[in-house]
């Protein structure tokens, strides 16, 4: 099953940019996923289990480094990537 995840990360500390960049760059290394960045959030498109396993690992990594981080996530059970939508 393919899903779309919209995720925003808010590290509650003065130096907040680098942890966000590091998080997104780790996500981009995952094979088989498509990521789209914008100024408010990052969208991840791909297989449900791949995305959920990745989120389990990456959220734990972030919380170990900075437990005062907020994540806001929204998911839908279809691939809503621009490439997929434009093809309709």
How many helices does DSSP assign?
3
| N-to-C CA distance | 19 Å
Structural class: alpha+beta
Assembly annotation:
single chain
Net shape: globular
Strand percentage: 25-35%
Give the topology, please:
Layout: E1 2-11, H1 17-28, E2 34-37, E3 42-47, H2 48-65, E4 69-76, H3 82-86
Antiparallel strand pairs: 1-3, 1-4, 2-3
Task: List its salient traits.
88 residues; four-stranded antiparallel sheet
Can you walk through the features of this model?
With about 90 residues, the protein is an alpha+beta fold. The protein has 3 helices and 4 strands, in the order βαββαβα. The protein has helices at about 15-30, 50-65, 80-85; strands at about 1-10, 35, 40-45, 70-75. It has a 4-stranded antiparallel sheet. The model has no long low-confidence stretch (mean pLDDT about 90).
The gist of it:
This protein has 88 residues and is α+β, with helices and mostly antiparallel strands. 40% of the residues lie in helices and 32% in strands.
